[in-house]
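Query structure, 300 tokens:
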């Protein structure tokens, strides 16, 4: 199997370098090869020079996309998908670090089943120094800041006592910071919807279409990424999320899509309401009621 890793990047030179260093340490067997496609979405921070100077040993391709009004993760990922040659596409963000088994675990999750969307675990790293020089010659967790938070999806799965596929809202949790699917399925689905610009929901909408095309979702905990520190949702990010939600609901005129409004109170920095966990529980409960699944409380 050939694996294509597609990474959109915008003003993330230093974070991207760490991501690439970790991808250069992948332990794939002789039956697997990998290419890494970086799509620079109009950066002016020296990303091009960093990639050009990156040490040999990684099948690395660089795509430079001029900044425009339609720039964003959806368009950047599509540009990467257009250049992918692998049977399996792994979607990753620039500010992720991965262990040496990352790609092998994604490939293993797809073994024997070609109709899966696999999503992996996401850990949040805390603030702290990164030993970049050590990462240049070996992967070591000791070179990274400590993990401060686990995957935000897992408390929801625990509350409902099910696998990710058991959620009515499973498509919403197809996060492109760590997901994989056969390239032919992405091509058949038309890739990402470039009507999504800025931050939020372009990956959930792709998940929505893929699952409605008959694919199944699997949460594979062994395929983990380690997310570099990030700040809270800003006002600009929230406006982008609301605009993308409006686009989502315009494209898919179904009530379960509209129910994502339940998540807004947890994202609005101007009027913070319930936390993300509480909003996600409400979202799933409403979706279950809509689908006729009578389970009034999580764990009940």
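Result returned for the query:
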């Amino acid at each position: 199997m050939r694996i294509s890793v597609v990474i959109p990047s915008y003003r993330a030179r230093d974070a991207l370098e760490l991501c690439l260093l970790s991808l250069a340490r992948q332990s794939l067997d002789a039956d697997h090869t990998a290419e890494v496609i970086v799509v620079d979405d109009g950066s002016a921070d020296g990303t091009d020079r960093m990639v050009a100077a990156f040490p040999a040993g990684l099948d690395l391709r660089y795509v430079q996309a001029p900044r425009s009004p339609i720039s964003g993760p959806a368009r950047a990922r599509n540009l990467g998908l257009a250049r992918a040659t692998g049977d399996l596409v792994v979607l990753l963000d620039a500010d992720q670090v991965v262990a040496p088994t990352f790609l092998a675990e994604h490939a293993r999750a797809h073994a024997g089943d070609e109709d899966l969307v696999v999503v992996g675990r996401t850990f949040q790293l805390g603030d702290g120094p990164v030993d970049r020089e050590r990462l240049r010659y070996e992967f070591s967790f000791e070179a990274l800041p400590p993990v401060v938070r686990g995957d935000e999806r897992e408390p929801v799965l625990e509350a409902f006592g099910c696998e990710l596929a058991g959620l009515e809202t499973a498509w919403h949790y197809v996060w492109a910071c760590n997901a994989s699917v056969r390239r032919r399925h992405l091509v058949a689905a038309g890739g990402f919807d470039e009507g999504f610009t800025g931050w939020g929901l372009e990956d959930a909408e792709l998940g929505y279409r893929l699952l409605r095309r008959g694919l199944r979702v699997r949460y594979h905990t062994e395929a983990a990424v380690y997310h570099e520190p990030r700040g809270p949702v800003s006002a600009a990010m929230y406006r982008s999320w609301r605009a993308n939600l409006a686009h989502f609901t315009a494209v898919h005129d179904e009530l379960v899509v509209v129910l994502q409004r339940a998540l807004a109170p947890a994202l609005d920095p101007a009027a913070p309401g319930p936390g993300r966990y509480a909003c996600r529980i409400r979202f799933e409960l409403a979706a279950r009621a809509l689908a006729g699944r009578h389970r009034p409380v999580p764990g009940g």
